[in-house]
Write a structure and sequence with these properties.
Blueprint (H helix, E strand, L loop, with lengths): L6 E2 L13 E3 L4 E4 L11 E3 L4 E4 L13 E3 L4 E5 L12 E3 L4 E4 L14 E3 L4 E2 L5 E3 L6 E2 L13 E3 L4 E4 L13 E3 L4 E4 L12 H9 L7 E5 L2 E5 L1 H5 L3 E3 L4 E2 L15 E3 L6 E2 L13 E3 L4 E2 L8
Parallel strand pairs: 1-3, 2-4, 3-5, 4-6, 5-7, 6-8, 7-9, 8-10, 9-11, 12-14, 13-15, 14-16, 15-17, 16-20, 17-21, 20-22, 22-24, 23-25
Antiparallel strand pairs: 18-19
InterPro entries: Leu-rich_rpt, LRR_dom_sf, RLP_Defense_Trigger
Subcellular location: Membrane
Pfam family, one: LRR_8
């Protein structure tokens, strides 16, 4: 029923169609709210590009068979429901261009391996999400630009997925970041020089040490071994791991901004050019890996 000129509200009687599995009402002029009573067996629910208004009904939590949920381009508002992060079969979740606000629930950091596409862009999402860990999944496509709106983010782990395309410059907005791990993906293009202007300073360390999430362990690889960090030890960790991708170009010279960085891994890419002498200014570095690239210069004598 998509791509018509239907107006008015979504009929409540649709909820009585208990065998319905696919409901596509996109690209119409429907108004009003999303009905509280919908078929529980729906695998696809698409109401994008309408004029719907209101919040997301809590009754949708029981639609456990959902594979695709598209609410994009409406005037929906309210918080992002926690139950969305618990949907067992959800592969596509699109909520683009609405008025959703508040933080992204912690449950979104624990999506099961079925999720393939997530887009929350063009909303008013904010809040105090400190850790976003989507590592070790099968996520594809580009790294979402909306991650750059998570202003309180300290730890970003997207490693061991199938992300492709460039590293988005929107990540440069995350001024509290202390750890970025996008290793073992299919990322290409150059390393954004602005990423190396990200502030890895004491304010983010103090912020994380006060956070309730500091006791939640995160996994990070150092010196070819994976370690689990939590509590006060976690709050002192800082690093960038871009290894095992398809990155090209030269290593940016702005590395001296990372005076407190502990781990830096750009290995297994196609980087070219000289090894920046500014690496010698990384006074706290414990693990530096630039191997398996196409770097041509000698190792700077002051390293």
């Amino acid at each position: 029923m998509s791509n018509n000129f239907f107006t008015g509200g979504i009929p409540i009687s649709i909820g009585d169609m208990i065998s319905l599995q696919l409901l596509d009402l996109s690209n119409n002029k429907l108004s009003g709210g999303i009905p509280r009573h919908l078929p529980m067996g729906l695998a696809l629910f698409d109401v994008s590009n309408n004029q719907l208004f209101g919040d997301i009904p809590s009754s949708m939590e029981n639609m456990s068979h959902l594979v695709t949920l598209d609410l994009s381009n409406n005037t929906l508002f309210g918080g992002t429901p926690r139950w969305m992060g618990k949907m067992p079969y959800l592969q596509e979740l699109l909520m683009v261009n609405n008025h959703f606000e508040g933080p992204i629930p912690m449950e979104f950091c624990k999506f099961n391996g079925s999720l393939q596409f997530l887009d929350l862009s063009a909303n008013n999402i904010s809040g105090s999400l400190v850790t976003l860990d989507l590592s070790n999944n099968q996520l594809t496509g580009n790294i979402p630009n909306w991650i750059g709106s998570l202003s309180a983010l300290v730890y970003l782990l997207l490693n061991n997925n199938n992300f492709e395309g460039r590293i988005p410059v929107d990540l440069c907005k995350l001024l509290r970041l202390r750890l970025i791990d996008v290793s073992n993906n299919n990322l290409s293009g150059t390393i954004p020089f602005c990423l190396l202007n990200t502030i890895l300073d004491d304010s983010s360390h103090a912020y994380d040490s006060r956070s309730f999430s500091a006791d939640v362990p995160i996994e990070f690889t150092m010196k070819n071994k994976s370690y689990s960090y939590k509590g006060r030890v976690r709050s002192y960790l800082s690093g960038i791991d871009l290894s095992c991708n398809k990155l090209t170009g030269e290593i940016p010279l702005q590395l001296q901004n990372f005076r407190d960085i502990v781990v830096l891994n750009f290995s297994h890419n196609s980087l070219i050019g000289p090894i920046p002498p500014t690496l010698s200014e990384l006074s706290q570095i414990e693990s530096l890996d630039l191997s398996h690239n196409r770097l041509r210069s000698k190792i700077p004598s002051n390293l």
